[in-house]
Amino acid sequence: MQRRTFITAAGTAGLIGLAGCSGVPDDLTFTAAPATIDPSAASEAGYETKGANSLELERTVDVGGESRTVQATSWITTYAGDNGPVVVASTPNATVLGQSLNPLARLSGSELITRLLEEFGSGSGLSINNLEAAGTTPITVFETEATVEEFTAAVETSGGGGPANQFTGNSSSSGGVPIRLYLLSVSHEYSDGNDVISALAFQPQKNVAPETIYELYRSLSHPQEPPESTNSSQ
């Protein structure tokens, strides 16, 4: 449940903050477009995916004593590779009266990593400890300058499949596998809306290959026609 409530929580706070303001629409429906890594780039780097999954939610919030229903659809795509997983999420940068209701648009660094793991990491079997900043790298994404934030950490696995399988059996005696994380977060405006694209990649510290991740991020595509997917409703 928690992984699909972040827009609701932000939306509730944002809309309550607009209490007493006129012009809040009755229909608050927001839909992101999927963001994916170019298939050729993913294949060349040794990554594969089962496709994008849509996450849907619907909640009722109070706006100055009046009820409003907020509906939002996000997309998440997980890529498995021999050197660690990559997760790409696209969430609607929902706005009401010019105020963003998406907390991912306002977070960065370790706070954003924590939120991404909370919202999209449920069931992954991954637990991140000792997260420390390790520099930044500028790249171009969607023809715009962006920044990849890098971190070191230790990852522990609890099984259960998913990304955790790629680190199973590699834990060190110090309480986890030393890893490097690559975080990208950009807002991308297009003809039908404005989405927040967040990407998080994991690599074992003993076998880092940063340029591989940079190339994957440079190849990100958005928007596109929604692919066939597994829907999760809340």
Structure characteristics:
48% strand, disordered N terminus, Protein Transport Mog1p, Chain A, alpha+beta
What does this protein look like?
This protein is an alpha+beta fold and 234 residues long. Helices cover 16% and strands 48% of the residues. The protein has helices at 6-16, 39-44, 109-120, 210-218; strands at 27-31, 36-37, 47-63, 66-81, 86-92, 95-96, 99-100, 126-141, 144-157, 177-190, 193-204, 220-221, 231-233. It is globular. The chain starts with 5 loop residues before the first helix and ends with a strand.
Short description:
The chain is an alpha+beta fold and 234 residues long.
SSE arrangement:
Layout: H1 6-16, E1 27-31, E2 36-37, H2 39-44, E3 47-63, E4 66-81, E5 86-92, E6 95-96, E7 99-100, H3 109-120, E8 126-141, E9 144-157, E10 177-190, E11 193-204, H4 210-218, E12 220-221, E13 231-233
Parallel strand pairs: 1-4, 3-13
Antiparallel strand pairs: 2-12, 3-4, 4-5, 5-11, 6-7, 8-9, 9-10, 10-11
